[in-house]
C-alpha cells in the first residue's frame, strides 16, 4: 500500500505510536476535507498494529453507533475480546474506558473516523473524550485517533471553547497537495499537461490517480468531468456537503467568485445576499483565501478567491451545466465552456508561478528576505508576481498561459506597469515571465529579463 507525499504526517503518527507503546497514552486529531487522503493514510498507518478502525455513519443514532463500535472491536480484535466486549455500550464514556482497559499491557491503536458524526446524537462527544482522557487514561498503551472531514466542526472541537482544546498531543490538518508535491502522482506527464491535470483535479489524491498519463487532457476531461457520473463532476458536492449547509448561501458566494467577482461588494451583488458570515465561514474552513496587494500604493481592499483549485474548476466550468452533462450532452458542454476552462488554467498557472518564485527565494536566486505576492491598483494596473525586499521591488513578473511566444511588446507593457511601484533598490529590478510559449529572440537577450516555462515550475 503506497502512500505518496505524506512523509511528515506518517512521521508524526509513528512518533506518537512509539510514545503510546512505551506507556505514554497519545490522543491524536487528524482532519481535513473529504478526498485528501486521511482514511488512506490512517489505514496504512494501522497496518501491522493491534488496532480497531471504526468509521461513524451519517444520521445514525447514538445507540446504533455504539453497537457498531462494539461489533468492530469483536471483529478486528477477535478472540482476545470475544468474552469481554459487550453487545453494545451504554455510552461513549463506557466505550472509551473499555478500550483503555484492554490497552494496559499491550499497545492498542483506536481510530474513530468521521468523529463529528458522533456529535449528531451526542453533542458533548468531545467533552466526553476529554473527561475520559483526563480521569481514566493514565499509563495505558493506548493511541486514540479522532479523524474528520467536517473541517469547521473539528477546528471548533480543538478551539478555545472546544472540548479537545489543548488536549491532543498531535493535531494535524491535511489539505490537498500543492502543485509541486502533486507532481509525484503523475511524474511522466509533460509539464504543461500536468499543470492542466492539476487545474482540473486539484491536489486530491483520488482525482490525480484517476487521471491517465496515456490519454490527452481532452480525453481525461471527457471521461472524468463531461461523462454522466464522472468523478470530477460528482465529487465537489460531496466534499462541500460534509462541512457546509447549502441553506447558508455558500454555493451562491462560491459561484460568484468562480465567475470573476473578487471584491466583497461585487461578490455580495452577484450572490444577492449579505455575505459577512458566509465569507468568514468559508475562509476559516479553507475554501476561500483573502489576498491583499503586497507593499504600499496598491488597492486597500482585499480580493477573495476560491482557494481549492478543483472546487474552483467545478464552480467555474461544471456546476451550471451539471444537469446537461448528466443528460448526455457533455461533449457539447465541453466545447461551450472551453473559454472558461482556459481562464481557470491561467489562474492556476499564475498561482503556480508565485509558488515557484518563493522557491527561487529559498534557493538563493533572489535575496533571502524577499517576500512574494501580487499587486494591483484600482483594477487598472495589476502585477501577477511581485517580489519586495523591504519596501523596494526586486522582481516584477507576468504570467501568460498562451501558446505563442512573448515579445518585446510584452516587456514594454510590464515595464509601464512597474512604473507604478516604488523605486527599486540599488541591485535593480528583474523582470520575469512565466510563459507556456516561451519568448521570441527579441526578448530572450535582455540581461534584466528571466523566462520560466511549465518545466521550471513543476521541476
Automatic annotation (TrEMBL):
Signal peptide annotation: none
Top-level taxon: Bacteria
Name of the protein: AAA family ATPase
Gene3D superfamilies for the chain: P-loop containing nucleotide triphosphate hydrolases
GO terms for MF: ATP binding
Limits of the DUF234 domain: 314-403
Domain ATPase, first and last residues per copy: 12-208
Entries under InterPro entries matching the protein: ATPase_dom (IPR011579), DUF234 (IPR004256), P-loop_NTPase (IPR027417)
A Pfam family annotated for this UniProt entry: DUF234
Amino acid at each position: 500500500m503506497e502512500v505518496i507525499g505524506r512523509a511528515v504526517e506518517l512521521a508524526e503518527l509513528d512518533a506518537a505510536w512509539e510514545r503510546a507503546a512505551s506507556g505514554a497514552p497519545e490522543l491524536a486529531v487528524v482532519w481535513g476535507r473529504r478526498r485528501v487522503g486521511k482514511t488512506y493514510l490512517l489505514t496504512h498507518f494501522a497496518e501491522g498494529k493491534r488496532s480497531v478502525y471504526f468509521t461513524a455513519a451519517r444520521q445514525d443514532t447514538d445507540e446504533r453507533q455504539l453497537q457498531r463500535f462494539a461489533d468492530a472491536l469483536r471483529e478486528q480484535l477477535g478472540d482476545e475480546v470475544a468474552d469481554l466486549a459487550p453487545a453494545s455500550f451504554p455510552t461513549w464514556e463506557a466505550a472509551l474506558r473499555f478500550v483503555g482497559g484492554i490497552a494496559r499491557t499491550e499497545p492498542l491503536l483506536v481510530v474513530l473516523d468521521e468523529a463529528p458524526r458522533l456529535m449528531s446524537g451526542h453533542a458533548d462527544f468531545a467533552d466526553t473524550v476529554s473527561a475520559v482522557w483526563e480521569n481514566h487514561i493514565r499509563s495505558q498503551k493506548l493511541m486514540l485517533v479522532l479523524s474528520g472531514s467536517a473541517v469547521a466542526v473539528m477546528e471548533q472541537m480543538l478551539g478555545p471553547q472546544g472540548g479537545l482544546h489543548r488536549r491532543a498531543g498531535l493535531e494535524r490538518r491535511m489539505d490537498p497537495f500543492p502543485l509541486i508535491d502533486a507532481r509525484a502522482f503523475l511524474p511522466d506527464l509533460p509539464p504543461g499537461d500536468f499543470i492542466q491535470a492539476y487545474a482540473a483535479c486539484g491536489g486530491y489524491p483520488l482525482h490525480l490517480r484517476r487521471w491517465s498519463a496515456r490519454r490527452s487532457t481532452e480525453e481525461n476531461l471527457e471521461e472524468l468531468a463531461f461523462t454522466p457520473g464522472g468523478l470530477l463532476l460528482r465529487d465537489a458536492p460531496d466534499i462541500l456537503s460534509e462541512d457546509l449547509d447549502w441553506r447558508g448561501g455558500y454555493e451562491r458566494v462560491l459561484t460568484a467568485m468562480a465567475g470573476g467577482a473578487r471584491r466583497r461588494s461585487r461578490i455580495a451583488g452577484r450572490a444577492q445576499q449579505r455575505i459577512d458570515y458566509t465569507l468568514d465561514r468559508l475562509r476559516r474552513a479553507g475554501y476561500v483565501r483573502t489576498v491583499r496587494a503586497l507593499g504600499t500604493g496598491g488597492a486597500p481592499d482585499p480580493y477573495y478567491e476560491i482557494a481549492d483549485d478543483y472546487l474552483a474548476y467545478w464552480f467555474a466550468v461544471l456546476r451550471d451545466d451539471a444537469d446537461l452533462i448528466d443528460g448526455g450532452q457533455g461533449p457539447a458542454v465541453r466545447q461551450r465552456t472551453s473559454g472558461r476552462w482556459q481562464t481557470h488554467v491561467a489562474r492556476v498557472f499564475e498561482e503556480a508561478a508565485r509558488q515557484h518564485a518563493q522557491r527561487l527565494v529559498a534557493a538563493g536566486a533572489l535575496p533571502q528576505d524577499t517576500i512574494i505576492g501580487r499587486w494591483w491598483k484600482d483594477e487598472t494596473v495589476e502585477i501577477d508576481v511581485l517580489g519586495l525586499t523591504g519596501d523596494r521591488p526586486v522582481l516584477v513578473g507576468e504570467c501568460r498561459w498562451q501558446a505563442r511566444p512573448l515579445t518585446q511588446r510584452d516587456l514594454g507593457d510590464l515595464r509601464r506597469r512597474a512604473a507604478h511601484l516604488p523605486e527599486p533598490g540599488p541591485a535593480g529590478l528583474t523582470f520575469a515571465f512565466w510563459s507556456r510559449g516561451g519568448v521570441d529572440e527579441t526578448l530572450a537577450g535582455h540581461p534584466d529579463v528571466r523566462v520560466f516555462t511549465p518545466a521550471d515550475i513543476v521541476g
